[in-house]
Sequence to fold (672 residues):
Amino acid sequence: MSALLSLSHVGKDYPLTKRGPFQPRRTLRAVDDVSLEVAKGETLGLVGESGCGKSSLARLIMQLEAPSRGSVSLDGADLAKLGKSALKRARRDFQIIFQDPYASLNPRMKARAIIAEALHNYRLGTPAEIAARVEELAQQVGLGAHLLDRFPHELSGGQCQRIGIARAIALKPRLIVADEAVSALDVSIQAQILNLIIRLQSELGLTLIFVSHDMSVIAHVADRVAVMYLGRIVELGDTETVFSRAIHPYTRTLLAAVPTPTPAARGKRSAPAGEMPSPLSPPSGCHFRTRCAHATALCADEVPALREVGGRAVACHHAEALYQPKDASEVVHV
Amino acid sequence: MNTVVDVENLSLEFRNGEQRVHALDQVSFSVARGETLSLVGESGCGKSVTAMAIMGLLPKASARITSGHVRMAGTDLIGLPERQLQQIRGNRIGMVFQDPMTSLNPVHTIGMQIAEAARRHRQLSHAEAMQRARRMLDLVRIPDAGNRLTAYPHELSGGQRQRVMIAMALVCDPQLLIADEPTTALDVTVQAQILELIADLKAELGMSVLLITHDLGVVASTADRMMVMYAGRIVEEGPVERIFARPSHGYTAALLRSLPGHGTGRRGTLTEIAGTVPRLDRPIAGCAYAPRCGFAEPGCSASLPPAPEVEDGHRSACIREAAVFDAMRDSPIVRSWR
Fold:
């Protein structure tokens, strides 16, 4: 397995404004020591709740932010070490699809111009060639050619998302980050867009990082999944392994909270106690310990490292005890 | 029957110059005392308009109710003068909106905002109203309620803001709580907390809940009865466990099939709903879903399908309901309910 993308001990701090002249400068640690690899052609799902750092991580991968620590490498080349023009060349290889299909399209540009913009930026052909390529892309994403001369406000959410996808694949990238790409859509449209993304991935041999808060979407598209909590990865492994028998108490909490359209959901009490702590002052040791039923003194003292237990990586001091292969009652289905 | 609110043949259109949009078409339902009734459908189907019409919150200049009644304890809310409507709104009916950040006033403390309805409807003094607000914060399980009264909305988390919204809606002990997508903007663990809170309060206070959502998982976990809405019409209604066990409308079936993770297999093709929602600027003669429906036959578009009972208390406006159920019989979701 060769890694296309590799993150090594990546961290990102955002400095906050001082509260007063003699107050210490505070920082928000959005991403904390994240290391992972994504193989060519693979789909990695990134799940977690608001403020867990999944979108920050997506922005670091996209080089929209510079990491405070660690490195992001594409095909072995550290992206932070590239010069401006080399980075611009490299950007062709990684593109992003955003969550809000309306907000991420320029309202003053027609669909045709939005899709063509990147092609013009990289001078990929004569105007006639670019025009032909735009029509080809529109066809690839299932956008009727008659819609190319419309503005975003004249199109539906699903159609706008197709434009966003056409724009992302225009430069023939190798890696696409889909940041909550289907979260704003109705279920029937969500199904269309998920089908489209999966189809394009296999047609174009794309590597995909799929960021979502929706467990059922991740379970559907991702080969592997990384679960994040307060800036750290708490569990990482094959989607089926992780979702069918989660080890980390946070992963279990998250899966149990998903309302499923099955009778098992009726009257089920699955809400965790308490709220996510402020990322400004996360608990010491394991960030989840304040809400965890299994927490001990060790959890407050030491940050648990990601380690191999039960065929996946888990950052929990009690992972072995929680991984009981025969205990069917802990099995959670999404 | 012991009902809290009765909606009967409610039709509503929006007017903009010569343009008309038929937003609701002959909507009828009633909410029984103590039940949670869920209204499900996709964007633009008329779920929120139904709620706003009950509350009398639609813009008078453009929204026109062309027929129907909304009865609450014998009073028809349609056509009621604004002054009398204000006695009911916020008092006998409480409402929670989707986005707690934009529904709360950022420049007033949450204590003031909760107390406002109590002062208005119950003629309480400032001190009494603040006392009441404090009890409400306890009721919605906000820790350290006494100190939180003076907090501003931006100082609260998303889940706490939604708790404050619920406290505001319940301050006058309404008989009916209308919750319009109350958890859509929240994370799943917070969503689970808020749904449990609403269920607990419903039982504690003996109120009824009209829960508007697009999420069939939320319906399954919280509602007693459900109604599926499409293009301004209710297409299927009945007890939750009956509808999931015997989906009897082409649109309900399509919604269930498009959910990821249920029988399609990982990365398998999800069932898409072909086409787009119909334009509502002219009346639709037959079933509004027929042009997109895989089960449709020529009769579907000819005339409005009646909504007979498929089984006890379960109605479907679909002449192909037998074929729909036959096709859905082996769906893992349907099987799990049988």
Observations:
- The mean pLDDT of chain B is 92.
